[in-house]
Amino acid sequence: MMMWSVAGKIPVRKIRDSVEKISTDNVRIMTTGRIELGPTGRTVAANVKRLREARGLTLRALSAELRERGRPLSADALNKIENGAHQDERAVRRVDADDLMALATAFGVGPLALLLPVDTEAQDTVQVTGTAAVTAHRAWQWGTGVGPVELPPERGTAAAGKALYAAISQYRIFGLPHWLVEMQDDEGQELIEKHPGKRRSSSG
Which contiguous run of DSSP H or E holds residue 51? Predict the structure, then answer.
């Protein structure tokens, strides 16, 4: 039995088929073309290859490990992820948040070992998506919960001191769980009580 639209002129099946075709066409358009990776995307790609080779894993072996962890990625997908480290016309694949966590657990490292450059010196300049170039030291302090990646540029004035205090406070309040902040405060207080002269020397 043929069903007709409300207007009574176009079969419902024809409308449904047209909608499905439009949806499929849209998906195809959205997934074609080169995917442009930012600096952090390229860092992740390079770190995936670095860690895979350091662990002595082939693409197939890593794929099998990820499958066992409930986040299956084919060897071809992993190869395309690693291609992101190169700025050429190779086919690339983005790493989403679940991919990143699964890769980190498979490699036995923390997520930062994928997100931030590792083969650096403290004062090397590194690129982090969303901010100007910073030192590797600053990037890792930010990533490990020490403080914000961006700090007020001025120093030595009361206004600059307030801005710095506000930036660090907001980072801790909104970026860290309360129990971690409390643990950091307790550890800092304990350090001051054990070494009272350390506070004076570090502020100079």
Answer: helix 39-54
- The span from the CA of 36 to the CA of 100, in Å, is 18
Whole-angstrom distance, CA of residue 52 vs CA of residue 106: 9
What does 162-195 look like in DSSP terms, one character per residue? Answer: HHHHHHHHHHHHHHS-HHHHHHHHHHHHHHHHH-
Tell me: the pLDDT tens digits for 46-57?
A: 999 999 999 999
User: What torsion, rounded to 10 degrees, do the Cα atoms 77, 79, 85, 90 define?
Assistant: -90
Residue entry with tokens 């480290």: 85
Output the six-digit token pair for 105: 């657990």
The residue among 162, 132, 124 whose CA lies nearest residue 149 is: 132
Pairing of strands 134-135, 125-126: antiparallel
Exposure string of 130-140, with b = 16+ CB inside 10 Å and e = fewer, is eeeebebebbb
Kindly report, residue by residue over 162-204, the tens digit of the pLDDT: 999 999 999 999 999 999 999 989 988 888 888 776 544 443 3
Q: Is the pTM of this model over 0.90?
A: no
Rounded alpha-carbon distances, angstroms, from residue 157 to 122, 161, 162: 27, 6, 9
Average pLDDT, the chain: 84
